[in-house]
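# nightly structure sweep
# worker-07 picked up a monomer target from the shared queue
# config: single-sequence mode, recycle default, output format = structure tokens
# input follows
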Amino acid sequence: MSTDAANTPSVVERTRAVAADAPVVAVHFIDRTAAFVLGEEAVLLVSGASGEKRIAIHGGGILSSASDGVRVVTGGDDGKVMSVDAKGESSAIATDAKRRWIDRVAAGADGAVAWSAGKTAFAQIGKGEPRSVDLPSTVGGLAFAPKGVRLAISHYNGVTLWFPNAQASPEVLEWKGSHHEVTFSPNGQFLVTSMQEPSLHGWRVVDRKHMRMSGYSARVRSFGWTVGGKWLATSGSEQLVMWPFQSKDGPMGKQPRMYAAFAVRATAVACHPKQEIVAVGYADGTVLLVRIDDGAEVLGKHPGQGPVTALGWDVTGSLLAFGTEAGEAGIIDLG
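# output follows
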């Protein structure tokens, strides 16, 4: 920890332990219900003082998940795209005709859902029929634009921008290399991907201007936007790395800010929905809460048995859920 551990304020005592009993690959909130997505078969819903419900929705591993705040959408190695709501009611969105793995999923506004299998991406808008587009290589990531129905699909050598309801050909933003996770800035002006190598690549959407964000010790597997999109918080280094996006040029020609220097690598990040606070999970199981304006740190979880693999806030920012590769999980009540 970058400060003396003994003197770091702590909220560990506000944690409700959750018996995940399996690796946690993601966590999402539906109102005040935490949905822990487990590595195999099930989603664990936790709400209220004691309510826990384990919902088996896949016949194997869960490879991807996303949430629109109303439901959690998951993709599995059984070829199914599923959804589950806060009551635990699940339904099948799609089954791949060839039973291919559903590598990536995304959830957008008004019930829009996207998923990928191999080199094909699919999108279903509302109650319409799914549409598909073929890509030059396996899909690395999916993200809906914050407004409208535009889907970013990352792959080898760039990102394809696709309007599923339009007849026009998709646009391609090119940059050599393998692109994985992808995200739009909240204002829709920037698009950022994590690369196979330890770096990020970005584009200003209006003119395709490039921006390269490097200097990491490992591949960036987790990133998120602070409230208002001022900063992009990222994992992948032995500290929290924050890239500035306040200006029309984003991080072009600028250096990132570094917070919460640590002995081990940051593995997961999640930004508070209302304040400039970032939750950071580390490879030894530690969780820190970091305030951006002054770098103040609060301990959320002591080191544990495995790296932090999932972090998520509820919409009010009063609940923070975490999960680890070893199956440790909990919900911190900050209200």
